[in-house]
Write a sequence for this structure.
Protein backbone atom coordinates (compact mmCIF):
# COMPACT_ATOMS: atom_id res chain seq x y z
CA UNK A 1 0.00 0.00 0.00
CA UNK A 2 2.89 2.32 0.74
CA UNK A 3 4.20 1.91 -2.79
CA UNK A 4 0.71 2.65 -4.19
CA UNK A 5 0.51 5.92 -2.27
CA UNK A 6 4.07 6.81 -3.29
CA UNK A 7 3.22 6.18 -6.94
CA UNK A 8 -0.03 8.17 -6.84
CA UNK A 9 1.53 11.10 -4.95
CA UNK A 10 4.87 11.31 -6.78
CA UNK A 11 3.98 14.91 -7.76
CA UNK A 12 4.69 15.87 -4.11
CA UNK A 13 8.16 14.30 -3.92
CA UNK A 14 9.95 17.63 -4.31
CA UNK A 15 7.62 19.54 -1.99
CA UNK A 16 7.68 19.93 1.79
CA UNK A 17 7.22 16.73 3.76
CA UNK A 18 4.24 18.24 5.63
CA UNK A 19 2.36 18.81 2.35
CA UNK A 20 3.04 15.22 1.29
CA UNK A 21 1.53 13.93 4.56
CA UNK A 22 -1.54 16.15 4.10
CA UNK A 23 -1.97 14.98 0.52
CA UNK A 24 -1.74 11.36 1.64
CA UNK A 25 -4.33 11.87 4.40
CA UNK A 26 -6.66 13.71 1.99
CA UNK A 27 -6.33 10.91 -0.57
CA UNK A 28 -7.28 8.36 2.10
CA UNK A 29 -10.42 10.38 3.02
CA UNK A 30 -11.23 10.71 -0.66
CA UNK A 31 -10.98 6.96 -1.19
CA UNK A 32 -13.10 6.21 1.93
CA UNK A 33 -15.86 8.67 0.96
CA UNK A 34 -15.75 7.51 -2.63
CA UNK A 35 -16.06 3.91 -1.48
CA UNK A 36 -19.05 4.79 0.70
CA UNK A 37 -20.73 6.55 -2.22
CA UNK A 38 -20.16 3.51 -4.44
CA UNK A 39 -21.78 1.27 -1.81
CA UNK A 40 -24.75 3.64 -1.34
CA UNK A 41 -25.17 4.00 -5.08
CA UNK A 42 -25.13 0.22 -5.54
CA UNK A 43 -27.67 -0.26 -2.75
CA UNK A 44 -29.92 2.49 -4.15
CA UNK A 45 -29.83 1.02 -7.67
CA UNK A 46 -30.50 -2.46 -6.34
CA UNK A 47 -33.46 -1.53 -4.13
CA UNK A 48 -35.14 1.39 -5.91
CA UNK A 49 -33.57 1.51 -9.34
CA UNK A 50 -32.23 4.72 -10.79
CA UNK A 51 -34.06 7.53 -9.04
CA UNK A 52 -33.32 11.02 -7.65
CA UNK A 53 -31.09 9.83 -4.75
CA UNK A 54 -29.18 7.62 -7.18
CA UNK A 55 -28.51 10.56 -9.47
CA UNK A 56 -27.32 12.63 -6.50
CA UNK A 57 -24.99 9.84 -5.39
CA UNK A 58 -23.69 9.44 -8.93
CA UNK A 59 -22.99 13.18 -9.18
CA UNK A 60 -21.22 13.08 -5.82
CA UNK A 61 -19.12 10.12 -6.91
CA UNK A 62 -18.06 11.92 -10.10
CA UNK A 63 -17.09 14.98 -8.07
CA UNK A 64 -15.05 12.76 -5.70
CA UNK A 65 -13.25 11.23 -8.71
CA UNK A 66 -12.46 14.74 -10.03
CA UNK A 67 -11.16 15.69 -6.57
CA UNK A 68 -8.92 12.61 -6.51
CA UNK A 69 -7.53 13.41 -9.98
CA UNK A 70 -6.76 17.00 -8.93
CA UNK A 71 -5.01 15.69 -5.82
CA UNK A 72 -2.89 13.19 -7.77
CA UNK A 73 -1.87 15.87 -10.29
CA UNK A 74 -0.59 18.09 -7.46
CA UNK A 75 -3.48 20.58 -7.25
CA UNK A 76 -3.84 20.09 -3.52
CA UNK A 77 -5.81 23.24 -2.62
CA UNK A 78 -8.50 22.75 -5.31
CA UNK A 79 -8.87 19.06 -4.41
CA UNK A 80 -9.33 19.87 -0.70
CA UNK A 81 -12.01 22.50 -1.29
CA UNK A 82 -13.89 20.24 -3.69
CA UNK A 83 -13.73 17.33 -1.24
CA UNK A 84 -14.91 19.50 1.67
CA UNK A 85 -17.86 20.93 -0.27
CA UNK A 86 -18.87 17.49 -1.53
CA UNK A 87 -18.55 15.84 1.87
CA UNK A 88 -20.65 18.58 3.46
CA UNK A 89 -23.40 19.10 0.89
CA UNK A 90 -24.25 15.69 -0.55
CA UNK A 91 -25.16 13.91 2.73
CA UNK A 92 -27.54 16.77 3.63
CA UNK A 93 -29.01 16.79 0.13
CA UNK A 94 -29.60 13.06 0.51
CA UNK A 95 -31.29 13.67 3.86
CA UNK A 96 -33.61 16.37 2.52
CA UNK A 97 -34.61 14.37 -0.57
CA UNK A 98 -35.43 11.10 1.23
CA UNK A 99 -38.65 10.34 3.03
CA UNK A 100 -38.84 11.70 6.56
CA UNK A 101 -39.04 8.27 8.19
CA UNK A 102 -35.99 7.02 6.35
CA UNK A 103 -34.09 10.28 6.94
CA UNK A 104 -34.85 10.15 10.64
CA UNK A 105 -33.40 6.65 10.87
CA UNK A 106 -30.19 7.83 9.22
CA UNK A 107 -29.97 11.10 11.13
CA UNK A 108 -27.46 9.92 13.78
CA UNK A 109 -25.15 8.48 11.16
CA UNK A 110 -25.27 11.58 8.95
CA UNK A 111 -24.72 13.93 11.86
CA UNK A 112 -21.74 11.89 12.99
CA UNK A 113 -20.28 11.92 9.49
CA UNK A 114 -20.90 15.65 9.10
CA UNK A 115 -19.36 16.39 12.49
CA UNK A 116 -16.29 14.32 11.64
CA UNK A 117 -15.85 16.28 8.43
CA UNK A 118 -15.44 19.34 10.67
CA UNK A 119 -12.04 17.88 11.63
CA UNK A 120 -10.80 18.14 8.04
CA UNK A 121 -9.58 21.75 8.46
CA UNK A 122 -7.14 20.23 10.96
CA UNK A 123 -4.94 19.40 8.01
CA UNK A 124 -6.51 21.54 5.29
CA UNK A 125 -6.12 25.00 6.83
CA UNK A 126 -3.73 26.92 9.02
CA UNK A 127 -6.33 28.95 10.95
CA UNK A 128 -9.34 28.08 13.15
CA UNK A 129 -11.80 30.26 11.26
CA UNK A 130 -12.79 27.66 8.57
CA UNK A 131 -13.42 25.09 11.30
CA UNK A 132 -15.71 27.45 13.25
CA UNK A 133 -17.51 28.58 10.08
CA UNK A 134 -18.01 24.97 9.02
CA UNK A 135 -19.35 23.99 12.45
CA UNK A 136 -21.82 26.91 12.52
CA UNK A 137 -22.94 26.15 8.97
CA UNK A 138 -23.41 22.50 9.83
CA UNK A 139 -25.46 23.48 12.92
CA UNK A 140 -27.57 25.84 10.80
CA UNK A 141 -28.36 23.12 8.26
CA UNK A 142 -29.04 20.71 11.12
CA UNK A 143 -31.61 23.19 12.56
CA UNK A 144 -33.22 23.54 9.13
CA UNK A 145 -33.42 19.76 8.83
CA UNK A 146 -35.08 19.51 12.26
CA UNK A 147 -37.65 22.10 11.14
CA UNK A 148 -38.20 20.00 8.00
CA UNK A 149 -38.70 16.86 10.13
CA UNK A 150 -41.06 18.73 12.43
CA UNK A 151 -43.19 19.82 9.51
CA UNK A 152 -43.30 16.42 7.76
CA UNK A 153 -43.59 14.09 10.74
CA UNK A 154 -45.87 14.02 13.73
CA UNK A 155 -43.27 13.82 16.51
CA UNK A 156 -43.90 14.62 20.11
CA UNK A 157 -41.96 17.46 21.65
CA UNK A 158 -40.01 15.01 23.76
CA UNK A 159 -39.02 12.90 20.72
CA UNK A 160 -38.11 15.96 18.73
CA UNK A 161 -35.97 17.44 21.53
CA UNK A 162 -34.37 14.04 22.12
CA UNK A 163 -33.24 13.81 18.48
CA UNK A 164 -32.18 17.47 18.43
CA UNK A 165 -30.09 17.53 21.62
CA UNK A 166 -28.54 14.09 21.07
CA UNK A 167 -27.22 15.05 17.64
CA UNK A 168 -26.31 18.61 18.68
CA UNK A 169 -24.33 17.20 21.58
CA UNK A 170 -22.57 14.82 19.18
CA UNK A 171 -21.65 17.63 16.76
CA UNK A 172 -20.45 19.89 19.57
CA UNK A 173 -18.39 17.15 21.19
CA UNK A 174 -16.67 16.23 17.92
CA UNK A 175 -16.11 19.92 17.15
CA UNK A 176 -14.48 20.54 20.54
CA UNK A 177 -12.38 17.42 20.12
CA UNK A 178 -11.33 18.49 16.62
CA UNK A 179 -10.69 22.05 17.83
CA UNK A 180 -8.31 20.83 20.55
CA UNK A 181 -6.66 18.43 18.16
CA UNK A 182 -6.15 21.36 15.83
CA UNK A 183 -4.49 23.32 18.66
CA UNK A 184 -2.23 20.39 19.46
CA UNK A 185 -1.38 20.00 15.80
CA UNK A 186 -0.54 23.69 15.48
CA UNK A 187 1.74 23.51 18.51
CA UNK A 188 3.47 20.45 17.11
CA UNK A 189 3.87 22.18 13.76
CA UNK A 190 5.16 25.32 15.51
CA UNK A 191 7.62 23.27 17.54
CA UNK A 192 8.71 21.46 14.41
CA UNK A 193 9.15 24.78 12.62
CA UNK A 194 11.18 26.12 15.51
CA UNK A 195 13.27 22.94 15.51
CA UNK A 196 13.79 23.28 11.77
CA UNK A 197 14.78 26.92 12.23
CA UNK A 198 17.16 25.93 15.02
CA UNK A 199 18.65 23.19 12.86
CA UNK A 200 18.96 25.56 9.92
CA UNK A 201 20.80 28.02 12.15
CA UNK A 202 23.07 25.23 13.37
CA UNK A 203 23.67 24.06 9.80
CA UNK A 204 24.33 27.65 8.71
CA UNK A 205 26.78 28.07 11.60
CA UNK A 206 28.41 24.75 10.72
CA UNK A 207 28.69 25.76 7.08
CA UNK A 208 30.19 29.08 8.16
CA UNK A 209 32.67 27.36 10.48
CA UNK A 210 33.45 24.79 7.79
CA UNK A 211 33.95 27.55 5.23
CA UNK A 212 36.14 29.53 7.65
CA UNK A 213 38.16 26.43 8.49
CA UNK A 214 38.54 25.56 4.81
CA UNK A 215 39.56 29.14 3.96
CA UNK A 216 42.03 29.18 6.86
CA UNK A 217 43.60 25.88 5.81
CA UNK A 218 43.72 26.85 2.14
CA UNK A 219 45.24 30.27 2.90
CA UNK A 220 48.11 28.69 4.83
CA UNK A 221 51.35 28.18 2.88
CA UNK A 222 51.80 24.84 4.64
CA UNK A 223 50.71 21.63 2.96
CA UNK A 224 47.92 20.13 5.12
CA UNK A 225 46.85 16.51 4.53
CA UNK A 226 44.32 14.66 6.72
CA UNK A 227 44.17 10.86 6.69
CA UNK A 228 42.13 8.17 8.43
CA UNK A 229 43.42 5.02 10.17
CA UNK A 230 43.79 3.31 6.76
CA UNK A 231 45.82 6.25 5.45
CA UNK A 232 43.05 7.33 3.07
CA UNK A 233 43.02 11.06 2.38
CA UNK A 234 40.25 13.04 4.12
CA UNK A 235 41.69 16.56 3.79
CA UNK A 236 43.69 18.04 0.92
CA UNK A 237 44.64 21.72 1.18
CA UNK A 238 45.19 24.20 -1.65
CA UNK A 239 48.95 24.15 -0.94
CA UNK A 240 48.90 20.37 -1.44
CA UNK A 241 47.19 20.88 -4.80
CA UNK A 242 49.79 23.46 -5.78
CA UNK A 243 52.75 21.34 -4.72
CA UNK A 244 51.61 18.04 -6.27
CA UNK A 245 49.43 19.28 -9.11
CA UNK A 246 46.71 16.86 -7.92
CA UNK A 247 43.22 18.28 -7.41
CA UNK A 248 41.31 17.86 -4.17
CA UNK A 249 38.45 16.07 -5.93
CA UNK A 250 40.77 13.39 -7.28
CA UNK A 251 42.85 13.03 -4.10
CA UNK A 252 40.05 12.57 -1.54
CA UNK A 253 39.49 8.93 -0.67
CA UNK A 254 42.74 7.78 -2.28
CA UNK A 255 45.60 6.08 -0.44
CA UNK A 256 48.27 8.54 0.73
CA UNK A 257 51.06 6.33 -0.58
CA UNK A 258 49.37 6.16 -3.97
CA UNK A 259 49.26 9.95 -4.29
CA UNK A 260 52.64 10.66 -2.65
CA UNK A 261 54.89 7.57 -2.88
CA UNK A 262 57.67 9.36 -0.95
CA UNK A 263 55.61 8.88 2.22
CA UNK A 264 56.00 5.09 1.93
CA UNK A 265 59.27 5.50 3.85
CA UNK A 266 57.25 6.92 6.78
CA UNK A 267 54.46 4.31 6.75
CA UNK A 268 55.59 2.68 10.01
CA UNK A 269 56.06 6.12 11.61
CA UNK A 270 52.59 7.32 10.59
CA UNK A 271 50.96 4.15 11.92
CA UNK A 272 52.81 4.63 15.20
CA UNK A 273 51.57 8.22 15.49
CA UNK A 274 47.95 7.10 14.94
CA UNK A 275 48.14 4.27 17.47
CA UNK A 276 50.23 5.93 20.20
CA UNK A 277 48.66 9.42 19.89
CA UNK A 278 51.99 11.23 19.84
CA UNK A 279 53.24 14.15 17.75
CA UNK A 280 56.22 13.48 15.48
CA UNK A 281 58.45 16.05 13.78
CA UNK A 282 61.06 15.52 11.07
CA UNK A 283 63.23 18.43 9.96
CA UNK A 284 64.99 19.11 6.64
CA UNK A 285 63.52 16.12 4.84
CA UNK A 286 64.66 16.18 1.17
CA UNK A 287 61.84 16.29 -1.35
CA UNK A 288 62.13 16.45 -5.14
CA UNK A 289 59.60 18.68 -6.93
CA UNK A 290 59.82 19.70 -10.61
CA UNK A 291 63.26 18.05 -10.78
CA UNK A 292 64.52 20.33 -8.01
CA UNK A 293 65.57 19.25 -4.55
CA UNK A 294 63.53 20.95 -1.87
CA UNK A 295 63.67 20.60 1.91
CA UNK A 296 60.58 20.15 4.07
CA UNK A 297 59.79 20.24 7.78
CA UNK A 298 57.19 17.50 8.34
CA UNK A 299 54.98 17.36 11.44
CA UNK A 300 52.46 14.54 11.98
CA UNK A 301 49.64 15.18 14.48
CA UNK A 302 47.32 12.38 15.68
CA UNK A 303 43.56 12.92 15.69
CA UNK A 304 42.55 12.90 19.37
CA UNK A 305 38.90 11.97 18.74
CA UNK A 306 38.43 8.41 19.99
CA UNK A 307 35.73 7.70 17.41
CA UNK A 308 37.80 8.70 14.39
CA UNK A 309 41.41 7.60 14.36
CA UNK A 310 43.74 9.24 11.90
CA UNK A 311 46.39 11.91 11.56
CA UNK A 312 47.08 15.33 10.08
CA UNK A 313 50.30 15.81 8.14
CA UNK A 314 51.76 19.30 7.87
CA UNK A 315 54.59 20.03 5.46
CA UNK A 316 56.48 23.36 5.39
CA UNK A 317 58.87 24.17 2.56
CA UNK A 318 62.03 25.52 4.22
CA UNK A 319 64.23 25.52 1.10
CA UNK A 320 64.36 29.31 0.97
CA UNK A 321 65.15 29.48 4.68
CA UNK A 322 68.00 27.02 4.26
CA UNK A 323 69.33 29.05 1.35
CA UNK A 324 69.08 32.20 3.46
CA UNK A 325 70.88 30.54 6.35
CA UNK A 326 73.60 29.38 3.97
CA UNK A 327 73.81 32.88 2.52
CA UNK A 328 74.08 34.40 6.00
CA UNK A 329 76.83 31.93 6.91
CA UNK A 330 78.59 32.75 3.65
CA UNK A 331 78.17 36.46 4.37
CA UNK A 332 79.69 35.99 7.83
CA UNK A 333 82.60 34.16 6.21
CA UNK A 334 83.04 36.93 3.68
CA UNK A 335 82.93 39.57 6.41
CA UNK A 336 85.57 37.64 8.34
CA UNK A 337 87.70 37.21 5.23
CA UNK A 338 87.18 40.88 4.38
CA UNK A 339 88.38 41.88 7.83
CA UNK A 340 91.42 39.64 7.52
CA UNK A 341 92.10 40.94 4.02
CA UNK A 342 91.87 44.51 5.24
CA UNK A 343 94.30 43.74 8.06
CA UNK A 344 96.68 41.98 5.70
CA UNK A 345 96.42 44.85 3.25
CA UNK A 346 97.48 47.31 5.95
CA UNK A 347 100.37 45.05 6.88
CA UNK A 348 101.41 44.65 3.23
CA UNK A 349 101.28 48.41 2.71
CA UNK A 350 104.15 48.89 5.15
CA UNK A 351 106.77 46.78 3.25
CA UNK A 352 105.45 48.11 -0.05
CA UNK A 353 106.07 51.62 1.17
CA UNK A 354 109.60 50.56 2.11
CA UNK A 355 110.16 49.01 -1.32
CA UNK A 356 108.95 52.15 -3.09
CA UNK A 357 111.06 54.36 -0.83
CA UNK A 358 114.22 52.26 -1.25
CA UNK A 359 113.69 52.06 -5.01
CA UNK A 360 113.46 55.85 -5.06
CA UNK A 361 116.68 56.09 -3.00
CA UNK A 362 118.48 53.69 -5.39
CA UNK A 363 117.34 55.73 -8.36
CA UNK A 364 118.53 58.94 -6.72
CA UNK A 365 121.95 57.48 -5.83
CA UNK A 366 122.57 55.96 -9.26
CA UNK A 367 120.92 58.40 -11.59
CA UNK A 368 120.87 61.83 -9.97
CA UNK A 369 123.75 64.34 -9.83
CA UNK A 370 123.95 64.75 -6.10
CA UNK A 371 126.99 66.01 -4.09
CA UNK A 372 126.90 62.96 -1.85
CA UNK A 373 127.06 60.67 -4.93
CA UNK A 374 130.11 62.57 -6.30
CA UNK A 375 131.98 62.43 -2.97
CA UNK A 376 131.35 58.69 -2.51
CA UNK A 377 132.58 57.95 -6.06
CA UNK A 378 135.71 60.14 -5.52
CA UNK A 379 136.57 58.27 -2.32
CA UNK A 380 136.56 55.02 -4.35
CA UNK A 381 138.52 56.57 -7.21
CA UNK A 382 135.65 56.03 -9.65
CA UNK A 383 133.98 58.86 -11.55
CA UNK A 384 130.26 59.28 -10.79
CA UNK A 385 129.54 59.34 -14.51
CA UNK A 386 131.13 55.88 -14.85
CA UNK A 387 128.86 54.46 -12.16
CA UNK A 388 125.81 55.99 -13.89
CA UNK A 389 126.97 54.61 -17.25
CA UNK A 390 127.42 51.14 -15.74
CA UNK A 391 123.94 51.24 -14.18
CA UNK A 392 122.42 52.26 -17.50
CA UNK A 393 124.35 49.63 -19.46
CA UNK A 394 123.36 46.83 -17.06
CA UNK A 395 119.74 48.00 -16.98
CA UNK A 396 119.80 48.68 -13.29
CA UNK A 397 117.91 51.95 -13.65
CA UNK A 398 115.23 50.25 -15.71
CA UNK A 399 114.91 47.48 -13.13
CA UNK A 400 114.62 50.01 -10.34
CA UNK A 401 111.87 51.76 -12.31
CA UNK A 402 110.04 48.43 -12.78
CA UNK A 403 110.31 47.72 -9.03
CA UNK A 404 108.86 51.12 -8.20
CA UNK A 405 106.08 50.82 -10.79
CA UNK A 406 105.09 47.33 -9.66
CA UNK A 407 105.07 48.37 -6.02
CA UNK A 408 102.93 51.43 -6.78
CA UNK A 409 100.52 49.21 -8.77
CA UNK A 410 100.30 46.86 -5.78
CA UNK A 411 99.54 49.81 -3.51
CA UNK A 412 96.78 50.93 -5.87
CA UNK A 413 95.26 47.43 -5.93
CA UNK A 414 95.31 47.30 -2.14
CA UNK A 415 93.71 50.77 -1.96
CA UNK A 416 90.91 49.60 -4.27
CA UNK A 417 90.42 46.47 -2.18
CA UNK A 418 90.34 48.49 1.04
CA UNK A 419 87.84 50.90 -0.47
CA UNK A 420 85.66 47.98 -1.60
CA UNK A 421 85.89 46.31 1.83
CA UNK A 422 85.10 49.45 3.85
CA UNK A 423 81.34 49.43 2.99
CA UNK A 424 80.18 49.82 6.57
CA UNK A 425 81.93 53.07 7.23
CA UNK A 426 81.23 54.53 3.78
CA UNK A 427 79.08 57.63 3.37
CA UNK A 428 77.48 59.41 0.49
CA UNK A 429 79.47 61.93 -1.47
CA UNK A 430 79.77 63.33 -4.96
CA UNK A 431 81.55 60.72 -7.09
CA UNK A 432 82.73 60.60 -10.68
CA UNK A 433 81.27 57.42 -12.13
CA UNK A 434 83.98 57.32 -14.77
CA UNK A 435 86.72 57.06 -12.15
CA UNK A 436 84.64 54.62 -10.07
CA UNK A 437 84.09 52.39 -13.11
CA UNK A 438 87.79 52.45 -13.98
CA UNK A 439 88.81 51.47 -10.45
CA UNK A 440 86.24 48.64 -10.52
CA UNK A 441 87.71 47.33 -13.78
CA UNK A 442 91.20 47.41 -12.22
CA UNK A 443 89.84 45.54 -9.19
CA UNK A 444 88.25 42.91 -11.45
CA UNK A 445 91.51 42.55 -13.40
CA UNK A 446 93.40 41.84 -10.18
CA UNK A 447 90.77 39.38 -8.83
CA UNK A 448 92.39 35.93 -8.67
CA UNK A 449 89.14 34.04 -9.22
CA UNK A 450 88.21 36.05 -12.30
CA UNK A 451 91.71 35.55 -13.72
CA UNK A 452 91.89 31.81 -13.12
CA UNK A 453 88.33 30.56 -13.63
CA UNK A 454 86.81 33.08 -16.02
CA UNK A 455 89.87 34.33 -17.98
CA UNK A 456 88.97 37.97 -17.35
CA UNK A 457 92.31 39.05 -18.80
CA UNK A 458 91.24 37.63 -22.18
CA UNK A 459 88.06 39.76 -22.30
CA UNK A 460 88.21 42.99 -24.27
CA UNK A 461 86.94 45.95 -22.24
CA UNK A 462 85.45 48.62 -24.51
CA UNK A 463 84.77 52.04 -23.00
CA UNK A 464 82.18 54.42 -24.41
CA UNK A 465 82.09 57.35 -21.99
CA UNK A 466 80.42 60.66 -22.70
CA UNK A 467 82.40 63.79 -21.88
CA UNK A 468 81.70 66.26 -19.10
CA UNK A 469 79.57 63.92 -17.05
CA UNK A 470 78.28 65.37 -13.76
CA UNK A 471 79.04 63.78 -10.40
CA UNK A 472 76.59 61.47 -8.68
CA UNK A 473 75.81 61.57 -4.97
CA UNK A 474 76.21 57.92 -3.84
CA UNK A 475 78.03 55.49 -1.60
CA UNK A 476 81.03 54.59 -3.77
CA UNK A 477 81.71 51.20 -2.22
CA UNK A 478 78.12 50.03 -2.76
CA UNK A 479 78.02 51.19 -6.38
CA UNK A 480 81.42 49.54 -6.88
CA UNK A 481 80.01 46.33 -5.40
CA UNK A 482 77.16 46.43 -7.96
CA UNK A 483 79.51 47.10 -10.88
CA UNK A 484 81.91 44.38 -9.74
CA UNK A 485 79.06 41.85 -9.61
CA UNK A 486 77.96 42.80 -13.12
CA UNK A 487 81.50 42.41 -14.49
CA UNK A 488 81.89 39.10 -12.68
CA UNK A 489 78.54 37.76 -13.96
CA UNK A 490 79.38 38.81 -17.52
CA UNK A 491 82.73 37.04 -17.35
CA UNK A 492 81.18 33.90 -15.88
CA UNK A 493 78.42 33.86 -18.52
CA UNK A 494 80.95 33.98 -21.35
CA UNK A 495 83.26 31.45 -19.68
CA UNK A 496 80.49 28.88 -19.11
CA UNK A 497 78.72 29.31 -22.47
CA UNK A 498 78.05 26.08 -24.38
CA UNK A 499 79.85 27.29 -27.50
CA UNK A 500 83.11 29.17 -27.72
CA UNK A 501 82.62 32.95 -27.62
CA UNK A 502 84.75 34.55 -30.32
CA UNK A 503 86.37 37.78 -29.18
CA UNK A 504 84.68 38.02 -25.76
CA UNK A 505 83.88 41.62 -25.06
CA UNK A 506 82.33 43.79 -22.36
CA UNK A 507 81.17 47.27 -23.39
CA UNK A 508 80.95 49.92 -20.65
CA UNK A 509 78.87 52.99 -21.46
CA UNK A 510 78.31 56.25 -19.57
CA UNK A 511 75.95 59.04 -20.61
CA UNK A 512 73.58 61.61 -19.17
CA UNK A 513 69.86 61.76 -19.96
CA UNK A 514 66.75 63.10 -18.18
CA UNK A 515 68.63 64.26 -15.10
CA UNK A 516 70.32 60.88 -14.57
CA UNK A 517 73.68 59.36 -15.34
CA UNK A 518 73.25 56.01 -17.07
CA UNK A 519 75.67 53.11 -16.81
CA UNK A 520 75.44 50.20 -19.26
CA UNK A 521 77.37 46.94 -18.86
CA UNK A 522 76.88 44.85 -22.02
CA UNK A 523 78.51 41.56 -22.97
CA UNK A 524 78.42 39.45 -26.11
CA UNK A 525 77.77 36.20 -24.23
CA UNK A 526 74.95 33.67 -24.70
CA UNK A 527 72.21 35.97 -23.35
CA UNK A 528 69.25 35.19 -21.10
CA UNK A 529 65.95 33.48 -21.87
CA UNK A 530 62.72 35.40 -21.28
CA UNK A 531 61.78 33.44 -18.15
CA UNK A 532 65.22 34.13 -16.65
CA UNK A 533 64.96 37.86 -17.45
CA UNK A 534 61.64 37.99 -15.57
CA UNK A 535 63.15 36.48 -12.42
CA UNK A 536 66.77 37.65 -12.52
CA UNK A 537 66.33 40.07 -9.57
CA UNK A 538 64.46 37.59 -7.35
CA UNK A 539 66.32 36.62 -4.16
CA UNK A 540 67.85 33.11 -4.29
CA UNK A 541 67.09 32.70 -8.00
CA UNK A 542 70.14 31.41 -9.85
CA UNK A 543 70.89 29.50 -13.05
CA UNK A 544 74.27 28.34 -11.75
CA UNK A 545 74.99 24.84 -10.55
CA UNK A 546 74.61 23.94 -6.87
CA UNK A 547 77.41 25.42 -4.81
CA UNK A 548 78.36 27.97 -7.48
CA UNK A 549 76.00 30.74 -6.49
CA UNK A 550 73.43 31.81 -3.90
CA UNK A 551 71.18 33.88 -6.16
CA UNK A 552 71.65 36.99 -3.98
CA UNK A 553 74.15 39.06 -6.02
CA UNK A 554 71.72 40.68 -8.46
CA UNK A 555 68.96 40.90 -5.84
CA UNK A 556 71.29 42.88 -3.56
CA UNK A 557 72.48 44.97 -6.53
CA UNK A 558 68.89 45.85 -7.43
CA UNK A 559 68.19 46.78 -3.80
CA UNK A 560 71.28 49.02 -3.63
CA UNK A 561 70.42 50.89 -6.82
CA UNK A 562 66.63 51.17 -6.46
CA UNK A 563 66.04 51.29 -2.69
CA UNK A 564 69.25 52.81 -1.37
CA UNK A 565 69.94 55.32 -4.15
CA UNK A 566 66.51 55.90 -5.72
CA UNK A 567 67.78 54.83 -9.11
CA UNK A 568 66.72 52.48 -11.88
CA UNK A 569 68.07 49.05 -12.77
CA UNK A 570 66.88 46.79 -15.56
CA UNK A 571 68.16 44.01 -17.78
CA UNK A 572 67.90 43.64 -21.56
CA UNK A 573 68.51 40.42 -23.49
CA UNK A 574 67.05 38.68 -26.53
CA UNK A 575 68.39 35.28 -25.43
CA UNK A 576 70.88 35.11 -28.32
CA UNK A 577 73.35 37.97 -28.56
CA UNK A 578 74.45 38.91 -25.09
CA UNK A 579 73.04 40.66 -22.06
CA UNK A 580 72.94 44.28 -20.99
CA UNK A 581 72.39 45.69 -17.50
CA UNK A 582 71.26 49.33 -17.44
CA UNK A 583 71.68 51.46 -14.29
CA UNK A 584 70.41 55.00 -13.84
CA UNK A 585 71.53 57.19 -10.91
CA UNK A 586 70.22 60.69 -10.15
CA UNK A 587 72.62 63.54 -10.78
CA UNK A 588 73.97 65.21 -7.62
Amino acid sequence: MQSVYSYLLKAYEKTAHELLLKARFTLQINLVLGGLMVMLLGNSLYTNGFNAPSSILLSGLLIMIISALLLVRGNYTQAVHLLLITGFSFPWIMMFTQSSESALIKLDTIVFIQACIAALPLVFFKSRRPMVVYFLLNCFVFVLFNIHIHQTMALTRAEHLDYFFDNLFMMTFIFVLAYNQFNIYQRVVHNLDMELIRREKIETALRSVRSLLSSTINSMPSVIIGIDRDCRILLWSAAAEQMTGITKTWALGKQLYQIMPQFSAFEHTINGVIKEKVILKKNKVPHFHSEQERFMDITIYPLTNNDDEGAVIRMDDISERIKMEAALIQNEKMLTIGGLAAGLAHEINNPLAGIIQNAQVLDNRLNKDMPANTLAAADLGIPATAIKAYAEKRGLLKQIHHISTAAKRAVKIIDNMLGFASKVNDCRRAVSLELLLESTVELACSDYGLKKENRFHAIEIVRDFATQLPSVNCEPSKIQQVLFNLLKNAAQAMATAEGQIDNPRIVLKLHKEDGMVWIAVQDNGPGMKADVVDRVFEPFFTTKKAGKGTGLGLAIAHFIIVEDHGGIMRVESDGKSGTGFIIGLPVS
About this structure: Residues 2-195 form one domain. The chain has four domains: 2-195, 220-317, 330-422, 424-588. The chain is about 65% helix and 15% strand. The longest strand covers residues 292-302.
